[in-house]
Amino acid sequence: MGHNSVGQGIGVSGSMSNRGWTILLIGAILLTGCRRPAQVKRASRPNGDSGQTELALSGEVVDGVRVVPVRAFSFDWAPNPVVIVAAESVKLVVRSDDTTHGIVIPDLEINEKLLPGQPVEIEFIAPEPGAYDFFCSVVCGWGHNSMTGYLLVLEEDGTGELGMAQPMPLREKPPQRQFVKDYRFEDLVPHLDWPDGSRSFESGQKLFVEMTCSKCHSMEGSDNLGGPNLARADLKLSRAELLREILEPSKRIDDKYRPWTFIADGRAIVGIILEHSDQHYLVQENLGEASAPIKIMSDDLEEEPSPAELSLMPAQLLSAMSIAEIQDLLAYVLAKGDPRHESYQGNTSGE
To answer: Which residue in 130, 141, 142 sits closest to 105, CA to CA?
Structure first.
């Protein structure tokens, strides 16, 4: 019977005039257009001298918990800032889109490694209203130093309105270099024959810090955890050899600095082994950042530790540099940080 009724309905619709169809179509469009969108709670925030800026709360509430998907990518976060409400339960689902990153929120004592394509869930109770910085803890390339973000925690005044006890201007991202070129070894070899006295010591020294080389390497003292002391007398490289090491850091990894992956208690830990016994491993995670080694008990391991085939040194450190800057950086490393080197011969300004 239901089948016949449906057939009759189709027959009636099929005999309807073109004018009737047009009226029905216009009515449907009007009804759809008049639907109210889902309500999104927003907060008005002062933004310097530009008046009020509206920010939507991040994520959505599921079973009483605010779930916020967060993407990490070279060299930023999305969303940024992450906007939440004080005292609510929060779950950040953080995922790296490209390479290994890390997320550290110092004020909340959160420190997690982010492997590509493997989401990490971070749960906490939102603290009191304010701004809480977070940053990438893994040296991930030339823009690492600018890979920062913050949690913006708002308060609810009981009427459903959001705000902060003390107005604070929205933060600006630190300046970030722009991509220049994905250099190959062959692209740069013709530029290695710079004449004596043509390079800038000050530029090379500045780039050594800015491009994150100093996170894992030093020019004095002993070897760092992340890499060798580049001023060592026994470390002798030609210009071409040094260039190859920077462009292809995974081609040859010293076992002393080879990263290992551990899976323990449902968490992935990537770092360099400092100490190993039958009972435990002592692993340094977040190379280049001030963090204590992690002690991993052998009984907590879910599988055998595996050595990584990729170096912890990023492969595209030169991609945001000009040819002249690359020459200055190479000259600084080859000079072992000595301004008296033949590449300078009194030239410290590069002019």
So the answer is: 130
pLDDT at position 33 is 41
Task: Taking each helix axis as running N to C, give the angle between helix 201-210 and helix 323-334, from 0 to 180 degrees, rounded to the nearest 10.
Answer: 90
Residues 6+ apart with CB under 8 A from 231: 218, 219, 220, 336, 337
Model confidence at 104, in pLDDT bands (50, 70, 90)? very high
Rg of the chain, C-alpha, whole Å:
28
The two three-digit tokens of residue 294, written as one number: 């992690």
DSSP letters for 273-332: EEEE-SSEEEEE-STTS--PPEEEEGGGBSS--EE-SS-SS-S-TTTT--HHHHHHHHHH
Return all residues near 272 (Cβ < 8 A) that are at least 6 apart.
225, 226, 256, 257, 258, 259, 260, 283, 284, 287, 312
User: Which strand (E) or helix (H) includes residue 120?
Assistant: strand 120-125
Q: CB burial class (10 A; 0-12, 13-18, 19+) of residue 187?
A: middle
The pLDDT of residue 40 is 45
1.10.10.60, 2.40.110.10, 2.60.40.420, 3.90.550.10: which CATH number matches 42-163? 2.60.40.420
Q: What is the residue extent of each domain of the chain? A: 42-163, 185-253+313-334, 259-307
Q: What is the rounded CA–CA span in Å between residue 276 and residue 289?
A: 22
pLDDT, position 145: 81
Model confidence at 155, pLDDT cuts 50, 70, 90, reads confident
Q: Is the pTM of this model over 0.90?
A: no
* Per-position DSSP letters for 87-112, written without gaps between them: T-EEEEEEEESSS-EEEEEGGGTEEE
Report the C-alpha gap between 160 and 46 in whole angstroms. Answer: 19
pLDDT higher than 50, residue 162: yes
Residues in the chain, total: 351
Coil, strand or helix: which one is 162?
A: strand
Going by C-beta distance under 8 Å and a sequence separation of 6 or more, which residues neighbour residue 306? 260, 261
Strand partners, 92: 68, 122
